[in-house]
Write a structure and sequence with these properties.
378 residues, alpha/beta, seven-stranded parallel β-sheet, globular
Length: 378
């Protein structure tokens, strides 16, 4: 099977570029990779002849930092022209409209990777959140991206999503179940492993953009309400413009630390007692996999797309619920034995969610797609 995989961002970099690299690696190891078409690259171990990149996209990405739809459209135009004949084409949401059309003409089975909930579902959640906190985002560029995303859903044969939350959002927005594949992401269990929890302090760790989408206002409210002695809240990640006014009153709180962007977060997990992510909307947050691999119990919302289970690897709370969030934090603060139990269960569970396992699930989806649409080849 010949697979072309396409993504506009920094391949083998952070975020979705990191996810894409691991999926491409799985495809390559199976002997199925025809070409990875990427914006630009970090260092990686995929053979050069299997990767087509456009180094000038680095400058486009920098110039269009706040205009992702523009960046993605430029990439899509050039990627579609570089697209070779293949059996499977797999592109990332908002980044592959023209490439999907070209792949269809070449006779390929087509996939879109949607790393979040359905565009319309996501947009409703975010608009509600922005209205709650008085933030007015620029709408024009976001609307452009949504239109591209919806068009891609219509063209693609299949859509891959990383969590039950994202999967359900697709169903609620009218995407037929037979067009969906649920493929969770993965984690490097050698890089992320349990440490020795701190004994003299309870340390609650948040990793991700400090933003409205991540539910940070509710976390800060819950933390201030509790006023726990010998306790610290660490927030690791860039503060986004939408959350600056919300975060400002907490910048000098004695038990809250804003660490900003940290290049290597693995050691921070090993210094924490509990991991928290009260997100309003995600696809499947990589940080939840990392925290589980590091032996931390989770406090999470269903909208994080975590593979953790309520009462088994962590405590699940509803979105925007300060009371439930505070209760979960306090319970794990007061019950160290429970923290150990949930953390051990998380480490055990995540062993079935390595990047190798994620690659195997993706390959099975490609095989199943070909079985359905090209039965003559089986």
């Amino acid at each position: 099977m010949r697979v072309v995989y396409s993504i506009s961002t920094k391949f083998a970099g952070a975020g979705i570029g990191y996810i894409a690299y691991h999926f491409v690696r799985g495809i390559y190891r199976a002997g199925w990779l025809e070409k990875a078409i990427v914006g630009y690259e970090a260092q990686h171990d995929i053979p050069r002849e299997r990767v087509r990149s456009f180094p000038w996209m680095r400058f486009v990405a920098r110039l269009a930092r706040d205009y992702a739809p523009l960046r993605d459209t430029i990439f899509d135009v050039v990627a579609s022209r570089a697209l070779p004949a293949c059996d499977i084409f797999h592109g990332w949401s908002h980044q592959c409209l023209y490439s999907l059309q070209r792949a269809k003409k070449l006779g390929a089975i087509t996939f879109v990777e949607r790393p979040n909930s359905h565009d319309l579902y996501q947009d409703r959640l975010l608009r509600e959140e922005y209205e709650r906190w008085g933030y007015r985002p620029p709408r024009q560029m976001r609307s452009w991206g949504i239109r591209r995303g919806l068009a891609e859903y219509q063209i693609a044969d299949f859509i891959t999503v990383p969590s039950s939350f994202a999967y359900q959002s697709m169903l609620e927005e009218g995407i037929p179940e037979e067009r969906l594949f649920l493929i969770p992401y993965g984690v490097d269990t050698e890089r992320f492993y349990p440490g020795t929890p701190p004994q003299d302090v309870f340390r609650l760790l948040f990793v991700g953009q400090v933003s409205l989408r991540k539910g940070v206002p509710y976390l800060l409210q819950a933390w201030r309400r509790l006023g726990l002695p010998q306790a610290e809240l660490w927030l690791v990640g860039r503060i986004t413009p939408d959350a600056r006014h919300v975060v400002a009153p907490y910048r000098h709180h004695p038990s809250v630390r804003f660490l900003g962007h940290v290049a290597d977060v693995a050691p921070l997990y090993r210094q924490a007692s509990v991991f928290v992510l009260p997100s309003i909307e995600e696809g499947s947050a990589l940080v939840t996999y990392e925290a589980m691999a590091s032996g931390l119990p989770l406090i999470f919302t269903p909208n994080t797309g975590a593979v953790a289970r309520d009462g088994v690897e962590g405590i699940q709370v509803p979105i925007r619920d300060v009371d439930a969030l505070a209760a979960a934090i306090e319970r794990l603060y007061r019950e160290p034995e429970l923290r150990i139990e949930l953390g051990r269960a998380g480490r055990k569970r995540v062993l079935d969610y390595t990047w190798e396992k994620a690659g195997e699930r993706l390959l099975r989806a490609y095989t199943e797609a070909r079985r359905r649409l090209r039965p003559d080849l089986h």
